[in-house]
Design goal:
The chain is α+β, with helices and mostly antiparallel strands. 20% of the residues lie in helices and 27% in strands. It has four helices and 13 strands. It has helices at residues 12-18, 24-31, 119-140, 210-221; strands at residues 51-52, 58-62, 79-85, 88-94, 98-103, 108-113, 143-150, 155-159, 174-178, 185-188, 194-196, 202-207, 233-236. The N and C termini lie far apart (73 Å).
Length: 249
């Protein structure tokens, strides 16, 4: 039987003694915190995953020069990693709290941090590992981007010289686009990148740096962004667009 004269601010133990048995589990379960997810918490393990090095790729850790000054800034403590392969040489900066374990016999490399409880170190752990993996693939196999030109009269060529753009370095090539403007669009290739046109409506970009390849592909795409009514534009790496229904008045 419920006693109604009791105040509501009494302890849960006191209320459990006076309430019926079928109401006690409901009160005890409501006070406990509930989680929206039924899965256990598990942090990302991308940073601790080992990296496989091809035989032609070599890693070398360049220690920062330590001067006589006692106050050394965070920037001076940053270590630089050299990745060398058949397609070139690249560098990656490692934070001071990160170290590299390189086993030359098994051709394996892994990254480790000082404190796994610190959020900043965990975030940079996986990010740095992803950058290192991209550099290893870049100097060994290279990164590519394929662009498709969809539209009537759209075509592209690779030219050794340009009319409207001055070369930034000797031997620079230019991608010439004819995508519906009154004049051709000429874009100079970044240093170390190659471009070819297997078909008049296809552009193949190759280079060791993934960021540079994708950034240059975005520059080309900017001149004709795919539109959703006729499906015309410049598409990058299998990009698709959902066509909209035509507006009929």
């Amino acid at each position: 039987m419920i006693v109604r004269s009791l105040p509501l601010r009494e302890s849960s133990y006191r209320a459990a003694l006076l309430l019926p048995d079928f109401l006690v589990p409901a009160i005890s379960s409501s006070s406990a915190s509930k989680s929206f997810s039924s899965t256990s918490k598990c942090g990302s393990r991308i940073g601790s995953a080992p990296l496989s090095l091809p035989e032609e790729v070599h890693l070398r850790l360049l220690e920062p020069p330590v001067g006589r000054k006692m106050n050394i800034t965070r920037r001076e403590l940053t270590k630089k990693l050299e990745i060398e392969g058949p397609l070139g040489k690249m560098f990656l900066e490692l934070p001071p709290y990160m170290s590299l374990d390189h086993n030359k016999e098994t051709r394996k490399a892994s990254l480790s941090i000082l404190d796994r409880k610190e959020r900043k170190q965990r975030e940079m752990w996986g990010t740095t590992r992803a950058y290192l993996n991209n550099h290893i693939l870049g100097v060994s196999e290279g990164h590519t981007a394929i662009l498709r030109l969809v539209g009537v009269g759209y075509r592209a060529t690779v030219e050794p010289s340009a009319v409207s753009v001055q070369p930034e370095y000797p031997g620079q090539q230019f991608v010439s686009l004819k995508v519906g403007y009154s004049h051709p669009i000429e874009l100079g290739l970044p240093l170390g990148m190659k471009a070819s046109t297997p078909q008049p409506t296809r552009i193949l970009l190759e280079g060791p740096e993934k960021e540079v390849v994708n950034q240059f592909a975005a520059r080309i795409r900017k001149w004709r962004v795919p539109e959703p009514y006729k499906g015309k534009g410049i598409f990058v790496n299998g990009e698709t667009i959902k066509l909209k229904a035509k507006k009929i008045k």
